[in-house]
């Protein structure tokens, strides 16, 4: 859970609601009942919580700590594909220790958003009986906390990362070999995100490539990956069984939620969308990619 | 028509047969009768010509000039996505003036490979009655010969370029806007190639995205774009009518020929493939991208 102060070629915003948990939860909320775990400070007001609760998201696991919420200041003015971090104020996040509410213990699908792998592992161990575990990470943990991250990877059914992270984690420069190298570290499936070009899933069978929707304007790329993950995983959680067909369709839902998320600043666009609009965009994505 | 001396992470080759016309003609030869125009020197031996004629390619338009053939020396060791030019020996190419044999004048499909736009325009004017004109260009002509290039663009049914060239030509940094900007300069359709991520076609209707085949090893990226163009355009030329469905399928054929071309050095892989293998790979590409 975070507040983001952003600068992009489309404009600036101060302290908009963000954070991986927020973007993921909103994206997944169109498909399934979502339960969030995170920490916020005194600056997290009822209006912020309402963004989540209005979508039926369970906020029992959001801990209130004295102080300010995590605050990230970033700019995409120089490069829309790589955020430049101007400031990271950890605030209450610095001492965060995720606590799983008793009411969450019957959860079937666990998503471990990008955070210290020690904490990801601890959460996973708190929920040993989930049906499926998916997760994310970032270059920082790959470079500086590799040993801990490797323990998390062994627990994952699905890892979602981007091209650069897959190459860094595997030491391979070829995209396909990189994905296979990451899979060899534990995850049953690896989804590699290619930004504006879509994403590829690598599992035990053949790969699957989902395109991204060409957009006239990317207003704010923050949270695109988390929204992809939320759409992907939320759709899977909504289905009775994880068939290859469900997995493929989940890739399309992920791509669609990612493309919606970036059309406005922060969570604006996901707050305004509907399942109907999402399904319509999945059909559009099919139309522009199928023979 | 060229000889290429290449260095890639997979190895080195000296003076292998290459050039846009060679790669394009070979790729297109699996679909239709191809007629080549180009210039070579004394070093172009019967064995080189046989690479083309063995595929039924008409070489009447290959001019023999005294001296050596165009020779390019390049390296992909630092970056597989951007060739580093170590030497360009224009040789007989320096004074090249394309001459269209009388036996070519009933051609229906014209492809203007990457060359000085003044020459592209002259060739186009020599064949005013063709059914369709497609073409390629590169950053050098965009930057330094823009006025001439703009005249060529007005003649094109299809322009094939890569992401960077589309952005450079249009002055737009967003991919979709860049393609629209290029289309506004003349071409009825613009195909933007995204390297390992595939390609997107932009025309009067909605865009169409074809994925690229994930490959374990890209041995030599030289000629990938020309092979894409040859597969794309050769397939179109083989069809009685250019329907949207034919156009989409042509994008898949282009992608498949591009992916085959890079699996070995120079023209080795295209020489060894068959229409059956090509069709099989189109089916694979469909399998890994369709819901």
What does this structure look like?
- Two copies of one chain form a homodimer.
- Chain A has 291 residues and is of the alpha/beta class.
- Chain A contains eleven helices and twelve strands.
- The first copy, chain A, has helices at residues 20-28, 46-53, 117-126, 139-144, 146-153, 163-170, 175-183, 224-238, 244-261, 268-272, 275-287; strands spanning 2-8, 11-18, 35-40, 58-64, 71-75, 84-89, 109-112, 132-136, 158-162, 189-193, 199-202, 208-210.
- In chain A, strands 7-8-9-10-11-12 form a six-stranded mixed beta sheet, sandwiched between helices. A four-stranded mixed beta sheet of chain A has the order 2-1-5-6.
- In chain A, a hairpin with a 2-residue loop joins β1 and β2 (11-18).
- In chain A, α6 packs across α7 and α8 (224-238) runs antiparallel to α9 (244-261).
- The longest helix of chain A has 18 residues, at 244-261.
- Chain A is globular, with a radius of gyration of 18 Å.
- In chain A, 48% of the residues are buried.
- The mean pLDDT of chain A is 97.
- The A-B interface holds A 9, 80, 173-177, 179, 194, 196-198, 200, 206-211, 214-218, 245, 248-249, 252, 284, 286-291 and B 9, 80, 173-177, 179, 194, 196-198, 200, 206-211, 214-218, 245, 248-249, 252, 284, 286-291.
């Amino acid at each position: 859970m975070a507040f983001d102060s952003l600068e992009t070629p489309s404009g600036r915003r101060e302290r908009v609601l963000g954070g991986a948990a927020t973007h993921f939860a909103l994206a997944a909320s169109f498909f399934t009942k979502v339960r969030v775990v995170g920490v916020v400070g005194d600056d997290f007001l009822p209006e912020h919580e309402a963004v989540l609760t209005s979508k039926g998201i369970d906020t029992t696991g959001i801990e209130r700590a004295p102080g300010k919420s995590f605050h990230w200041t970033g700019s995409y003015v120089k490069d829309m594909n790589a955020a430049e971090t101007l400031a990271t104020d950890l605030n209450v996040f610095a001492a965060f220790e995720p606590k799983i509410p008793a009411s969450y213990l019957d959860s079937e699908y666990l998503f471990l958003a990008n955070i210290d792998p020690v904490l990801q592992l601890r959460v996973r161990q708190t929920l040993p009986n989930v049906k499926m575990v998916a997760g994310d990470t970032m270059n920082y943990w790959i470079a500086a906390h590799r040993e801990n991250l490797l323990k998390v990877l062994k627990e994952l059914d699905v890892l979602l990362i981007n091209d650069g992270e897959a190459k860094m984690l595997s030491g391979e420069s070829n995209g396909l070999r990189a994905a296979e190298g990451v899979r060899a570290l534990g995850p049953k499936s690896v989804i590699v995100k290619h930004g504006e070009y879509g994403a590829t899933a690598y599992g035990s069978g053949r790969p699957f490539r989902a395109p991204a929707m060409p957009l006239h304007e990317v207003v704010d790329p923050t949270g695109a990956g988390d929204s992809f993950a939320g759409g992907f995983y939320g759709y899977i959680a909504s289905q009775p069984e994880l068939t290859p067909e469900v997995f493929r369709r989940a890739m399309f839902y992920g791509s669609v939620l990612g493309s919606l998320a970036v059309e406005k600043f922060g969570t604006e666009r996901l707050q305004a969308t509907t399942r109907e609009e999402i399904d319509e965009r999945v059909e559009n994505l099919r139309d522009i990619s199928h023979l």
